[in-house]
Amino acid sequence: MTTPNGKPSSPLRAPPHILALLERLHTLSLAQEPETNQAISGLLELRKRDPAEGTRALNKLMSDKFVALDKEKCEFVYQLILSTGAKNVVEAGTSYGVSTIYLALAVGQNFPGGEGGGGEEDQGKVIATENEPEKISRAKGYWQEAGEAVTRHVELREGDLLTTLQKDLPEIDLLLLDIWTPLALPTLKLVQPHMRRGTVVVTDNTVSAGPLYEDFLQYVNDPDGPFRSLTLPYSGGLELSVFMP
Ligand SMILES: C[S@@+](CC[C@H](N)C(=O)[O-])C[C@H]1O[C@@H](n2cnc3c(N)ncnc32)[C@H](O)[C@@H]1O
Q: What is the distance in A from the centroid of ligand 1 to the CA of 66?
């Protein structure tokens, strides 16, 4: 949809240097995609024949790739955070920190903290997770470039998220699962005890990677389970699940 001045509509409110940074990062990420996708399909075949070697090669290939969440999906999650008044967000899979910037801006706009004399506990927080040291360092650099509007709302947990998310989680309002598919269900189950009625879970590429999400999709669509789920028609599919125990 375009606005009357011909620009695409966007809910995002941020200073010009952050908007320019996001444009730059999405462009870099998109430029990597065709070659990366081609290499992935080859390695998925290899993984079927030789799971250990295929997994090793896939991890190596992806160790320096952006694979940022599409801009439209980032804007959707940003809008979702504003509309639900979310305060605490877990981002499973941070990479170079592109989606983190949207999440941090949104929780910061819901709960700026500090500004009204409130302390850290009064401010919105994104718990970001990444295990690739190079990506961690680049993400920190981009967040610094974005400035305080982002950095004051991000807590980065470095290392395997199945370990780093095991303790010190507040009540979580939104979980973004933008992670390798085998980790989606274990991560959901790890965060689930910290959810409240109405906590939202957004999971990327549940249509394009459908077969790899089989266990996850069964779990969130179980009519006797605690989630209600809907597949949104974004590119590759975006699953929107709500915790309703
Ligand atoms: C799809 S990318 C995330 C993209 C990011 N959300 C964005 O929009 O910029 C998934 C990331 O999860 C990271 N990852 C994979 N396994 C992980 C694990 N066990 N613990 C923490 N991070 C992991 C990968 O290194 C990769 O950077």
A: 9
Instruction: Write out the DSSP string of 113-173.
Output: -STTS--GGGS-EEEEEE--HHHHHHHHHHHHHH-HHHHTTEEEEES-HHHHTSS----EE
Closest ligand 1 atom to Cα of 69: 8
Q: Whose CA is nearest to atom 12 of ligand 1?
A: 93
- Which pLDDT does position 5 carry in this prediction? 75
Name all residues whose Cβ lies below 6 A of ligand 1. 67-69, 93-96, 98-99, 129-132, 135, 160-162, 178-180, 183
- Count of positions (residues) in the chain: 245
In CATH, the number for domain 71-243 is: 3.40.50.150
pLDDT, one tens digit per residue, over 39-48 is 988 998 998 8
Whether residue 68 has pLDDT greater than 90: yes
- CATH 3.40.50.150 domain residues, the chain: 71-243
Please report the atom of ligand 1 found closest to the CA of residue 96: 9
pLDDT tens sequence across 95-145: 999 999 999 999 999 999 865 556 777 899 999 999 999 999 999 999 999
